[in-house]
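Attaching the record inline, Q. Sequence:
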Amino acid sequence: MRYLILSDIHANWEALESVLKAAEGRYDRIVCCGDIVGYGPDPARVTERMNTLHVQIVRGNHDKAVLGQTDLSFFNPLARQAVYWTREVLAPVHWEFLREIPPGPATLLDFILVHGSLMDEDEYLFNGKEAASSLQMAWAPLVFMGHTHIQGGFALNADKTVTDFRPVFLEGKLESELKLEPGMKYLINSGSVGQPRDRDSRAAYAILDGEEKIIRFCRAEYPIELTQAKMQAVQLPEYLIQRLSLGK
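Structure, as predicted:
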């Protein structure tokens, strides 16, 4: 089975469509580590698209925030502003879709899905020390996460040490491979589709080949300026608009 791994789409229609086009014919099923909405200008359209794709999803913190299921005092002022705006433009059908997204973790045949971590769906894992607990408690050798918007991940080695890694894209390449080794556990972030924060503005995603035991980290070019123009038209915060170009 081949899986298209998505996360942190954040209402970015152009990025999502570019990823789906780039990955066409390379997967059998789509899964998502959450944050369908928040930040971006197309929450309704992206929600509808995800619904038609029949994606296995776990909820993200922005999905919860839009639904009023989390304390917005933990959000920075710009993120809160985007949440309030998103609430105003969603119709009942979109609210219903978001409400039906379950919390993580979700266990599939080949792996586990979470948004933040196995310990806490809202936990950020930025380094090996923070990732160690989730890796040790994982009941499958492979866990996919999102939340940090940084493509890469962590591995629990046979000697119980944890190493972190980031994909390396050779000049002109949009793909980087990771071979999964027997006896190891992996915590993988496919990166953010709609708002990457790893200094690469291209939409990020991953493809898991379950038979070959290979993860392909991928990037897709998309018309960032079109997304930014939409954000300006609805007066979303300028910082959120400009960060798309910077990939941070």
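The domain at 2-246 is CATH 3.60.21.10 (Purple Acid Phosphatase; chain A, domain 2). The longest strand covers residues 203-209.

More tomorrow.
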